[in-house]
Amino acid sequence: MNKYFIILLFISLITPTQASAKAKNHPLTYYGAVQKGKIIPWKEAQHLLLKGKKFTVIDMDTGLSFNVQRRAGNKHADVQPLTRTDTAVMKYIYDNHWSWNRKAVLIPVKEQLIAASMNGMPHGAGALDNGFPGHFCIHFLGSTTHKRNHADPDHQMMVLKAGDNLEKFVSTATPEQLIQLFLIGVKQRDDILLKAAVGKKQLEKVYSKVEKIEALHYKQEEIQSVIETQPLIVKGAVNVSTIAVERGEGQRSLTVSFKLEKPSTSGTWKIKEVSFN
């Protein structure tokens, strides 16, 4: 698709502000500071992006774009970069290292931008001569993984980010959802998710610790179990056991402690303090 056509078509959704330095200083096509996409469920998205369809993927953080083709997938879209150039752009978006990390993306289709989430790891089968050893996944609201019949929380948070819907999510979030949002932000190394979960001031207090964590593993079921055992009414504390990989220190057990409260029984929950032990 012609890049100038896309820019004109979606001019109302793209701000004229300066693109990220990463995109600006690299001779690639980028779209400036993209504001948001439309959040639609997978049951609708799969009919807009039928198997075999070629389309553009725009990374929200950098504004860089590349072209793909949907090859397979019934629970989400399994796609491949179209050419070796598209593969190179995608790898550049991931700092030249393939990764399972999720990224918020936008997909132009039928005069709208669709909010979605991608990972950056080649896996499974591939059929195109593109230098990409397999395919990667693109998720939409409510899409699920192939092996498990439930939505991937990390992908779903990135869909909300792509749709500029995190603030609305946080305004009605349960303690469990706020904790999960923060941990996903740590795991995906995403400052926007972290800020949405705890606010700018609290993030500044813990950022030096968070920034060192390169990988984080935890069980969502344990968070739910702790909260069900000790229900929170207007305030409380929750400890989450994790396995973290920290830069320069390797893998170790790490307990992340949260203090939460809300102004009244009908108020909005907030994370007031986060600590690591």
Descriptive notes:
The chain has 277 residues and is an alpha+beta fold. It folds into two domains: 3-162, no CATH class; 166-276, Nuclear Transport Factor 2, Chain: A (Roll), CATH 3.10.450.50. Helices cover 31% and strands 30% of the residues. The protein contains ten helices and twelve strands. α7 (175-188) packs antiparallel against α8 (191-198) and α7 (175-188) runs antiparallel to α10 (220-229). The chain starts with a helix and ends with a strand. Residues 1-21 form the signal peptide.
Strand content: 25-35%
Strands side by side in the biggest sheet:
3-4-5-8-7-6
Distance between the termini: 51 Å
Name the overall outline: globular
- When the domains are counted, the total is 2
**Any idea what the radius of gyration is?**
19 Å
Average predicted local confidence, pLDDT = 88
| Percent in helix | 25-40%
**Helix/strand-derived class?**
alpha+beta
Encode the helix/strand succession as letters.
HEHEHEEEHEEEHHHHHEHEEE
Signal peptide: 1-21
Keywords: Signal
